Amino acid sequence: MTGHAASPPPKVYGWCPGALRPMMSGDGLVVRVRAPLGRLTPEQARGLAELSQRHGSGLVDISARANLQLRGIREDAHRALIAGLRDLDLVDEDAEAEARRNITLTPFWRAGDDSHKIAQDLAAALTQARDLKLPGKFGFAVDCGAAPVLTDTAADIRIERGPDGLILRADGADTGLPVTAETAAGEALTLARWFLDQGGASEGRGRMHQLIARRTPPTVHVAAAPDATQISPQRPGATTSGLLVALEFGQMPARALAALADHGALRLTPWRMLLVEDISSLPPLPGLILDATDPRLRVSACTGAPGCPQARAVTRDLARDLAAAVPVGQHLHISGCAKGCAHPRPADLVLTATNTDRFDLIRNGTAADHPLNTSLSADALRAAPELLTEGS
Ligand code: SF4
Predict the structure, then answer these.
(1) CA gap 116, 119 in Å, rounded
(2) pTM score, two decimals?
């Protein structure tokens, strides 16, 4: 039950921006930085903040694949920005190597553990694999802690810890290949080549789960996957690796990034949060959410207007205003169009913009699903937020 009658379909790009291959948005270039091992030293974080302020809008996003995005970069400043990223050791040799090195690593890794070793080996192997032509969004998840934490994070090939040891699993498959920390990276590339050989990317696009829906994984993939049924969502607060800090709508001012760097090295997460290594508390900082009960954690909103050229309305001001009205335990997603970038999965409550001041309300669906109510104005929703939940 998808599709709005009146709205033209949103544009699907099929690739993710990088630093060397940025994407134009409504507020300038989006430059995505793939920090090695998803970690920034304090010097790198301060340097990125400075580059963001000098060449862009001074706004920094964290993506659903745990990468940092510098927003509003001026086209004529891109070359200087790349030079700055090279000085910080935060850019690949070329755009193809950057695109291949699409790895999400559990932020709870410890130096020398399986996740850390495998991610290092995989990054090196992908950088070298110049013949490997994977679709733009194809990615790897390295998630070898005692319990998985990346099962809700998009990835095509997963390296994780099953009940009987490490396994490599094609996304969408119930079983995987037993591996060791030494063999995992090589086997991951073998599985990526299997994906291509099986026609997974016949027109340059395609995802592993789509291939697995029509083909069984290789016959040697027989090891049980980890049990992901008991996994709770991550929240801001202290962990054994450091302090998780949430970003309102996954975005922060560059000055907040620089301020965080004064407290330690930073790890990027796919949950709109940063992990500050080896600390357990922080003083309040602008734009950052430290309290696990903050109502803003119950809403998501994409860039919206004017930052995204496809957006039909401003999204984040409304999300901020409605957050307190979202019942505890539920999630409201406000989307500038039916593409639903900020929360591709179904949410309890969804408002999808259909023009500059009209939203469709969807319950238990995605931004593209059939609305229960149409043409709600932002003012009407602010005046009567119970419209969101009435009759449910
Ligand atoms: S969902 Fe939001 S960010 Fe994505 S294309 Fe639509 S308006 Fe832009």
Answers:
(1) 5
(2) 0.91
